[in-house]
Amino acid sequence: MSAYQPTAINHAHASENRIHADDVAKRYGFRGGLVPGVAVYGYMTYPISRQLEQRWLDHSQLEVRFLKPAYDGERITIERSVADGGQSVSCRNDDGLLLANMTLNVAGALPAIDARAHLAPATSNPTRAEIAWDAISVDQPFAAIIWRPSADENETYTDYVADDLAMYRSGVVHPHLTLHWANQVLSRRFVLPAWVHVGSQVIHRRCLHVGDTVELRTIPIEKWRHKGHEFIKLYIAYMVDAEPAVEIYHTAIYKLAERAA
């Protein structure tokens, strides 16, 4: 297909994550509030779903990296290419700046299920408090979250990325919504005043559908500091019928470096 050119919309202005608000984002050197990375990913999945339909959500592995922000009202250009048995998708703004890239493989065997998928979750989480380095316990599971995607929720997150494909009106959960819940497990565990999603690795083993009972099991597996930023990496298993339907390795800057006055 030819390049897909949607308009990026920031539907998260009122989010607890104030990086989506113009005033806070500008304090960190951005032009305005950031369009959520999960939404940029949602736009990027359109040419894949148009070509492969549900098949890629039943069996694939991908990595998406967010390099530069997309801003509200900005036209973005999504281009898909196929080479060496895999696919790549790029997202650029009208200046030609690469905002995000994604690689996808739908052929061949998937990696073995991560053993952490079957670790027992915590029985409960501590009182939700602002995230801090010492509050992140690597390799210690969070309490599980039960998520039952509804038709209304799925329609909302499909509409947020202006996706008109029929499969998402017929019970298939939109990948935008799936990745949104990787953000939710972090924000339900900690208060995060301003943070940025920088990338995800996703393994699809079974398509999620409206009405599924999904147990979200989350474990922080890394934390590190770089250039004044503080990072966290989560492993998240979307369990359906006691087996992972989706596995996500989700990376974020939970504390942005302070800018010099």
How would you describe the overall organization of this protein?
With 261 residues, the protein is of the alpha+beta class. The chain has a single domain (18-255), classed as Roll (Thiol Ester Dehydrase, Chain A), CATH 3.10.129. Helices cover 19% and strands 33% of the residues. The protein has 6 helices and 11 strands. The protein has helices at 22-27, 37-44, 46-52, 55-58, 151-160, 175-189, and strands spanning 60-66, 76-83, 86-93, 98-105, 129-130, 145-147, 190-191, 196-204, 214-226, 229-240, 243-255. The strands form 2 sheets. It has a 9-stranded antiparallel β-sheet with strand order 2-3-4-1-8-11-10-9-6. A two-stranded parallel ribbon has the order 5-7. A hairpin with a 2-residue loop joins strand 9 and strand 10. Helix 2 (37-44) runs antiparallel to helix 6. It starts with 21 loop residues before the first helix and ends in a 6-residue tail after the last strand. The relative contact order is 0.18. The model has no long low-confidence stretch (mean pLDDT 96).
